[in-house]
């Protein structure tokens, strides 16, 4: 793969926006790089670009896909993405891997994982490098999602490994949250990350073929029972539990059909626009906290002060409210 | 009950601290009223008082008790509290009722609910009035808890009705979180607030007597199974599920014994001090958000600006990060 030399001057950045709107993948890729950059100049350019593109975002079906390592996420997305492509959909896959490092290797590795999809002209695959803060990764992924929508991708998949708070973040930036589970004995129910189930709109038991078919059926039944003990995302609308074989392309079309039906229903009854508004509001207040953190950390004196206050709070020497007021007063 | 006339001048407030340290309930009650006051002068006095008492806090066993309305929380706490009292413990009960209004009626009502305990010289009962923000209620309860510890109460119970985010807040300010569940058919498992189970250190099936004894046993078995599908608060330490009859005083001593054993174990292996430090740190960052909110709202121009920015974010006109930066910049 040839690397595009990234020359940056004002003229190019203006053009970048229109190239993205034309669906230019290279421009999209460049813009995501801009978003990921920690340089202040790049950040300003990214913000201006995103703000200019905002009116052209929001039209995609946003799907979060989560699951433990080895559950078959890449294989599923590879098959799933090709289904979407055959339907004439343009699909963008953004992968958050908290364990990955920013390197050509990681990006290459990711593209290799989904070889066919990576070559599909209707698809765009981009891993999100791990950042220093989970909040940072989440913001960059949200913003990349907006860029992908502006570039005309009508399905945006955000893939995440089930580590830490990544799932919650992904569930809070997508319309539908799909959890992948590998077949296992009934005993293994407790082995998966519990608490994620209640974020799920759809649970897919993977590898439902060959030797694992029977186990997959049993796992499906187990989760079907478990899901009834779990709070569902929408009152009275428990998550669907389905089986898929990504290798043999079984159940994948049905899964997509279930997603489309749910998405359309949520859109029709006004749940979806409300959900997105709430997500944006929460995002705003999360960013306020991020900005406070950044403001504090970018100021040596303030940073030292905050660390001292936090320490005093932890050891019970200072009252959290008083310490918070002291810090904010010092900021103003 | 005679109402203590609250005269406030500097001299009294200094005395208030030492009276609290002597275990004076009237002084404790007064100090909590000071915490709950929205007057700026009172808030300053409360902050000074709390800060001076901080070194004398932390010695209590902090127990959160939650459960849906009608599950028998008051009856349980009445019996439970008397057990503690007979053991020579001083017990403070702080009740958060998000639906209650600040009124003499509510306070009286609460004391009547736990008639015997309210008359017990070893007990102190105080409802937290509902505030305008859940965060506000949480802070006042945390701070009241600290005051109760300073006043020598060695068990502090924070009671909450299972509404909204109150449970999460209570679980995050206590050492042990006890969830009360009424007996019911197996089908009713899905009727309770799911997601709370994973906060629980102990699940108590109430009303395990008379006609309901068999149902209580079945419910216990159901929850015993369900708890195994739930992430436990401490890895490899699933919550205990026990039956109690508060009316006949059955199982209450055993429940207290289980709490003491767990608390001692958590203290011994260092989990408890770590938990409290983490709670305090989270509390600090929550307060920073509260303070930002207060700072914004107390300034008419800023408040209007924030509302406009939030609206623009919700409708997709503004980028959350950019809006957050704009708001913080306007604050400085």
What does the model show?
Two copies of one chain form a homodimer. Chain A is an alpha/beta fold and 332 residues long. The first copy, chain A, has three domains: 1-56, Single alpha-helices involved in coiled-coils or other helix-helix interfaces; 57-267, 3-Layer(aba) Sandwich (Rossmann fold); 277-330, Orthogonal Bundle (Helix Hairpins), CATH 1.10.287. Helices cover 53% and strands 12% of the residues of chain A. The first copy, chain A, has 13 helices and seven strands. In chain A, helix 1 (10-21) runs parallel beside helix 3, helix 2 (25-36) packs antiparallel against helix 7 (134-150) and helix 12 (300-314) runs antiparallel to helix 13. The radius of gyration of chain A is 21 Å and the shape is globular. The model of chain A is unreliable at 1-12 and 100-109 (pLDDT under 50). Chains A and B meet through helix 3, helix 11, helix 12 and helix 13 of A and helix 3, helix 11, helix 12 and helix 13 of B.
